[in-house]
């Protein structure tokens, strides 16, 4: 059973975001980005109370900007999804989760060592250039259930 409801268009949308955010980090890096996208769709807490679909997550606006930089800057996000990336997206939509993004709701590339917290949320690990953060214990139980 899928972790979140999705349509074919969601697979393509997610695949485009995964490539735009982490192509340089290979399939593993793209899977981690996919993990965060799905986690945000199932998390009913914090910044993610009003996002229930893949579309909502990817086009979420916070602080007058899109949550994902790739939506703003264009780059690879606006290119057609490749079949290999669609397969990766489907893996994360259905059941794939792995540390350090297993329960992560945030990631970023600090261009420096990963800070121990990101907006008060604990660091869970790093993969290549991306640092991953999950919610403080007790603040978002729904992400651990989805």
From TrEMBL:
Keywords: Hydrolase. Residues 25-133 form the Cell wall hydrolase SleB domain. The keyword Hydrolase applies. It comes from the Bacteria. GO terms for molecular function: hydrolase activity. Gene3D superfamilies: Cell wall hydrolase SleB, domain 1 (1.10.10.2520). This is Cell wall hydrolase.
């Amino acid at each position: 059973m899928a972790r979140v409801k999705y349509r074919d268009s969601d697979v393509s949308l997610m695949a485009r975001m995964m490539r735009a955010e982490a192509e340089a980090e290979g399939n593993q890096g793209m899977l981690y980005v996919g993990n965060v996208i799905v986690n945000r769709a199932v998390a009913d807490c914090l910044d993610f109370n009003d996002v229930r679909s893949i579309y909502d997550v990817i086009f979420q606006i916070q602080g007058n900007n899109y949550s994902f930089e790739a939506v703003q800057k264009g780059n690879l996000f606006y290119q057609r999804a490749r079949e290999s990336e669609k397969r990766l997206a489907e893996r994360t939509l259905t059941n794939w989760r792995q540390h350090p993004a297993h329960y992560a709701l945030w990631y970023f590339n600090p261009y420096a060592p990963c800070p121990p917290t990101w907006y008060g949320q604990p660091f869970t690990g790093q993969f290549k250039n991306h640092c991953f953060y999950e919610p403080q214990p007790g603040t978002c139980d729904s992400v651990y259930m989805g």
